[in-house]
Specification:
The protein is globular. Helix content is 0%, strand content 46%. It is mainly beta. The chain contains no helices and 11 strands. The strands form 2 sheets. Strands 2, 4, 5, 6, 9, 10 and 11 form a 7-stranded mixed β-sheet that branches.
């Protein structure tokens, strides 16, 4: 059974940093592109970042490029998102996700997600 378990969310002040982690099981992790998506209260699911199966090709939505870094450790079946220079508008539930293929996209359609980890940016 495919499982994605996120962790690392917290309450942080503007300008602060967090590192989100996602533990994956029940899939051949190194074969699939992996995603981070987020959802703020009352808003639609938003794509944040995607990384290719090898970990060499990351892509980001414009609002986080230069502040967030996606990475993966295929030996440990782990996905990460480093969040720096956090802003109040980054407040959301963050989800690790996969579509079960190798294609790198910015779409949130047909993604399998974990339960999420809450990031709150507030002073």
């Amino acid at each position: 059974e495919l499982q994605l378990v996120e962790s690392g969310g917290d309450l942080v002040q503007p300008g602060g940093s967090l590192r989100l982690s996602c533990a994956a099981s029940g899939l051949t992790f190194s074969s699939f592109a992996m995603y981070w998506v987020r959802q703020a209260p009352g808003k639609e699911l938003e794509w944040v970042s995607t990384i290719d199966p090898s970990g060499s090709i990351p892509i980001y939505t414009n609002s986080v490029r230069g502040r967030f870094t996606i990475s993966r450790d295929n030996a440990k079946n782990m996905l990460y998102l480093q969040l720096n220079s956090l802003k109040p508008e980054d407040t959301a539930m963050y989800y690790c996700a996969t579509r079960g293929d190798r294609v790198i996209t910015s779409s949130t359609s047909y993604l399998y997600r974990g339960r999420g980890t809450q990031v709150t940016v507030s002073s």
